[in-house]
Amino acid sequence: MSAVSSASDRPPWSRAERRVFGLLLGLGAAARLYAAWTMRHHLNIHAGTVALMTRHIALGKEFPTFYYGQSHMGSQEAWLGALFALVLGPSSGLAVSLGAAVVAILLLPMVYVWARDIAGPQAGAAAAAFLVIGPWGLFHYGGSPRTSYQTMLVCGAFSLWIASRIVLRWRRERMLRHRDFLGLGLAAGLAWWGGQLTAPAIFTAALFLLLGLRGGVFTWKLASGLAGFLAGSAPFWIYNVRHGWPTLAFRGTFGRVSFREALVRYFPARFDALLIPGEPAFLRPVAAVIVVGAMASALLLGLGALPGGRRSARLHPGLLVSLLFLPVFATVFGLSHFSAINAPRYLFPLIPILAVHLGVLTAWLGDRMPRPAAWIPVLLLIAMQTPVLSWAWRHEAFERASVGHLREMADGLRDDPPGALYATHTRHPWNFVLEEEFVFSTFEGDVYAPNQRRAEEADTVAFVEGYGDLGGFLTATGTEAESIRPGGIRIHLPPRPPEPRRVPLDPERIRDATDHRGQSALDLITDLRPDTAWTSRSLTGEEALELRFDGPVAIAGVRVLSLDYVALPRSWSVEGASAGGTWTELLPRTSVSLLFWSGPRPFWSYPFFRLEAYFEPTEVTALRIRGRHRNETRSWSIHLVQPLVAAEGTTPEPDLPALARLLGDRGILRLYTDRWEGPRVHEASGGTVWTPRHPALYPSEDPPDAVRITPDTAFLVRAGEVDLTIRTLTSRGLSARQTPVGPWVLIDADPDEPWTHDGADAGMVWTGFGLLAGPVPYAPVRVRRAASRFGEDPADPAILEDLNAALAANPWLHEARELRVRVHDALGDMEAAARERGRIEAATRPPRPAEIRFPRGIRFLGYGLDRDTARPGETVAITYFWEAGPRIEARHLAVFVHMLRDGQVAFQDDHVFLEDLPDLLQHPPPDGVIRIDREVRIPEDAAPGPVEIVLGLYDRRSGDRLRPRTDLPVRRRHAPVLPPGPGRDHPLEIAP
Q: Strand, helix or coil at 850?
C-alpha cells in the first residue's frame, strides 16, 4: 500500500493497532505523570506563578483569566489544575502539575490520528512514539506548567488537522459539516487566548481552507466556526473590553528584527536545542539532521518528487496543511520579537509537525525496507530523549531539599514577621511554597499585583539576599539592617530609620555650582524645573559637581533628584572641603541604590528617582559629588541637588486620624504626599481623599507627579521641607497657608486668596518631598489664553506678553509663533511678521537635509552648523531636527554623534534623546518637527583637517543601536554619515 494515501483508503482500526495505540498512550501518560511528580515543587518563576494562580482559583480567592498582569498569556491549565486541587488541596504542587500533564497527554492521540490519516497506522505509531517522552522542553512543560503551552500545542494541532479533514471531505463528497467548523472554531478560540504563539496555526488553518475549498469556503457553515471561535476565546474578548485592549499591544512586537536575520541567525541556533538541549553536545546536530530530513522528505512527498503511489494520494490535505504551516510559522516567528529571545520554547509549535513528518517518513521507509530498519530514526530520537528522565529525578531531589530550606527560613521569621519581603522575581514561587504565609514581592512589575500592593502598604519590610542593592543604600544613608540566615537564606531584617532627621539647606546659601569643565551649573540644579538638568560629559568616565557655600555649613547629607534612573550615575561618592581647603571623604565610593527613606521605611524610587546620602554633620565650605556611569561612554544627569542639614528638635509621631479630620474640616479632596503617607492617608479618609499612590498598583486617571490646582487641593510635606513647595507656588502667583500637623506641614490655599485654577496644565510637578515648576506643560495654557484674547481684541498687548512667555518656556511651540505672526499682521507690523515667519522656517527646515528613519516612528530630518570651520578649543553650535509621533516612549533612547578624523572618533556629542524636553511630546508641534540645539567643544588637541559626522540612536538599557533606514552611506555599525553643506566635501573643517 502507498505510504501516503487518502482517507478513503484507510483501513479500520485492527485489534493489534488498538493495542499499539493503547500502549503508546499509556507510556505517554506515565511519562507525563512522572514529570508532574518530579516537578511538583514549582520553584521556577513561571511555574510558581501558575501554581499561585491555581491555588487562588481553588480557594475562590482570585479568578484570573490572564497571566497575572501579563495580558498576552493565558492560563487554561491553571483552571484544570484547580479542579485537581479541590481533591488534593489548594497547596498541592502535584495538582498544579496535573493541570498541564493531562493536557499534554492529549497531544499523543492528536498526532497519532493526524499521521495515520496521511500514511497509515505505522505513521501514527511512529509520530506518537516520538512524543511518548517528547523533546526535553515538551516533557519539562508537561510537569512544570508555563501558562498554556500544552493547550496551545493541542488546540493548534487540532485546528490544522480538522482543517485538513474539512478539505478532504469537500474533495471527496462535496460536503461541509457544521460540527467540523464548530470544532475548528472552538479549538482556535481556546488556543487564541492561550497566547500569541498559536497565531501561526490559526492563520494556516484559515489560509488552507481558503485555498482548499476555494468557492466552497463561502458557506453559512462559517457561522458555526465563528460562533465556536467566539465561545472558545470569550475570556480574551471579555478581558480586553474591560481593560482597554492591552493584548493587542502584541502588534508592536513585529518588526523588531529583520526577517532574514531572524531566520538565518536565530532559527538554526535554537532548532537543535529544541530537540536535545543537554549533553553530550554531539547528539544535538544528529537529532536536528534526523528531524530536518523528515521534514524534507515530507516536502518531497507532498510535491510528488518521491515514489509512493498516485500523485493525488501524495497531495493528502493532512500533509499539505503541515507543510503550509512551516512558511507561515517562519514568517510570523521571524517578524515577531520571539525571534530575538534566546529561548527554544518559542519553537514549540513545530513539535506536532515534526512528529507527523517523522511518522510519514517512517511509513514511507517501511514500504521500502524491513520495518525495524524504517524505525531507526525514531528510535534514535527516543534514545536521545531518555536522559531527561534521570534529570527529572535529580531535579526533584534538589527542589525537595530547597523546599526544606524555605520552611526553615519561615520558622526563623515567625516570631517577628515583617510586613513584606522584597526579593528578585525568581523568588516569587516562595509565595506558593509557603502557602502565602509571607509576602515576597519585587519593587516593580510583580506578576501578582496584590502582593506588590501589600508590600507597598507594609509598615516594615525586609530584604532577601541584599535585593535592590540594599548594601549601597545602607552605606549611603548610614543606616543598618540586622542580617539572619534561617535555612541558609540570608534575610536582611527591616532597616532602622536614620537619626538625626535631615532637612534641605536654604538654597540661598549655595553660592555657586561648577563642574570639572569650570562651567556653572547652579541654575540647572536649583531652578525648581524638572526639565533642566546638569549633564556630565561622556568621555571621562568619572566626573564631579562642586557646590560652594557662602560660609561654613554643618552638612549632614545630600539629595539628588533625577527624572530617569538610567540617567543616574552607577556609583558615587561625596567629599567636603574645610575652611582651610582640605577635602575629606564624607561618603566613600558606593554603588547607587534606587531605595530612599519615606517615613519609617525604605521605598524604591518612582516616578522620580532620589539619590540620598547621610553622614555625620561636618562643617564644610564646599561639597563635591562624584559619579561614574557603568558604561564610560555614557553621561549621567541630575535635575535637582539639595544639601541636607540636621533638623532641630524631636519629630512628633504621625497621627493619621488627626490629619484625616483636618482634611475633612477643610474640604481637601486632593492631597499630594510622599510615598509612605499616600496609601495611609487615602485609607484613613475612607477613600475620599485622592493621594498620588503608585499608578501601577492603584490605577487612576491622574498621573501621580502632574499637579492639578483646585480649591480642594493641598500638599503634605515633612517639617523642614516646606521651602521648596512654597517657592514653587509663589512662582505661579499662588498664596498658601501652612498648618503643622504631627511630623508634617499641610500647605493649602490662603483663605483670603483661594486657588481657582483647575486643570492638568498647572505647570507643576510633584516629587514626593516637594513641588517643582515645569514650564513646558504650563506654556500651552498661556497660548490658549492668548488665542482667546486675540479673538476678542487682536490689539490687546497682553497677547504678545503671553506668547513671549510661552516661547521663553518652550521655544518649540510653533502654534505660539504662528499666532504671533497673526498678531503682527493684525497690528500692521509687516516687518515683525516677516521676521517671525523666518523663525518658523528656521525652526522646522534643516539647512542640511539628511533623512534617517528609525523604528518606533522616529525620523531624523537633518542638521545645521553655525560654522563650517572651527579651531581647537572653540565651540560649534549644532542643531538637530527630529520628527517623532505623539507620546512616544523616548526616555530610554540616546543619540550618538561621532565626529570622525580619518575614520576614528576625534570627539562626540552623545546625548539623551529629547533630554531637555520631557513633556514636549505630550504637546507636539503641529508639524511634528522638533529642533534640538546643542553646543560641541572642539578638543584642544584636535588635529587639523576635515571631519565627518555619523549619527544614530541606541537603547540606553541594552546598549543596542536602532537600525536605520536611509539612502545615506552607513558606517560603524549602522551609523549613517551626515552630508556636508553645499559645495563642501565634509561637514566641518578643523583649522590649524
A: strand
CA 188 – CA 226 distance, rounded (Å) = 10
How far, in Å, CA of 917 to CA of 921, rounded? 8
Question: CA 851, CA 861: separation in Å to the nearest integer?
Answer: 5
**Looking at residues 193-201, what average pLDDT do you find?**
84
Cβ–Cβ < 8 Å for 263, 330 = yes
* Contact call for residues 474 and 590 (beta carbons, < 8 A): no
User: What's the CA gap between 916 and 14, in Å, rounded?
Assistant: 77
pLDDT digits (tens, 9 = 90+) for 97-142: 999 999 999 999 999 999 999 989 999 999 999 999 988 888 999 9
Backbone φ and ψ for 950, nearest 5 degrees, come out as -115, 145
Contacting residues for 840 by C-beta, under 8 A, at least 6 apart:
814, 817, 818, 821
Q: Do strands 420-422 and 440-441 pair parallel, antiparallel, or not at all (unpaired)?
A: parallel
Instruction: For residues 844 and 293, give the distance between their C-alpha atoms in angstroms, rounded to a whole number.
Output: 59
pLDDT tens, residue by residue, 244-254: 676 765 555 55
7-16, 194-203, 406-415: range with lowest mean pLDDT: 7-16
Distance CA(196)–CA(191), nearest Å, equals 9
Instruction: Judge contact between 820 and 800, C-beta under 8 A.
Output: yes
> Helix %, strand %, coil % for the chain, to 5?
45, 20, 35
Distance CA 717, CA 694 (A): 18
| C-alpha span between 33 and 36 (Å, rounded) | 5
SS3 211: helix
Find the range with the poorest average confidence among 354-358, 520-524, 615-619, 757-761: 757-761
Q: Is the pLDDT of residue 917 over 70?
A: no
Among 247-256, 271-280, 284-293, 872-881, name the one with the lowest average pLDDT. Answer: 247-256
Return the amino acid letter for 15. R
Helix or strand holding residue 603 (H, E) = strand 601-604
> Do residues 916 and 532 touch, judged by C-beta distance below 8 A?
yes
- Residue 420: what pLDDT? 96
User: Hey, what's the cell of 986?
Assistant: 565634509
Closest to 127 (Cα-Cα) out of 327, 359, 289, 340: 359
What does the longest C-alpha to C-alpha distance in the chain come to?
102
CA distances from 424 to 10, 205, 384, 931 (A): 56, 41, 35, 41
Q: Nearest-CA neighbor of 545 among 564, 568, 563, 566?
A: 568
Higher pLDDT, 942 or 617: 617
513, three cell numbers: 555650582
Output the DSSP codes for 852-885: EEETTTEEEEEEEES-SEE-TT-EEEEEEEEEE-
Confidence (pTM): 0.76
Please, are residues 573 and 588 in contact by the beta-carbon 8 Å criterion?
yes
CA dihedral 380, 382, 384, 387 (to 10 degrees): -150
* 764 close to 692: Cβ distance less than 8 angstroms: no
Burial class of residue 404, CB neighbours in 10 A (0-12, 13-18, 19+): exposed
In sequence order, the β-bridge partners of residue 946 are: 989
**Which residues, in sequence order, are CB contacts of 440 under 8 Å at separation 6+?**
420, 421, 422, 423, 427, 428, 430, 431, 451, 464
Please report which helix (H) or strand (E) contains residue 214, including its range: none
Question: How many residues are given for the chain?
Answer: 992
| pLDDT band with cut points at 50, 70 and 90 for residue 889 | low
Alpha helices in 426-478 (DSSP H): 430-433, 449-457, 470-477
Which is higher by pLDDT, 279 or 431?
Answer: 431
In this prediction, residues 280-284 reach a mean pLDDT of 62
- Of residues 32 and 630, the one with the higher pLDDT is 32
Residue 660 to residue 764: CA distance in whole angstroms: 25
Peptide bond into 607 cis (omega under 30): yes
CA-to-CA distance for 26 and 954, rounded, in angstroms? 54
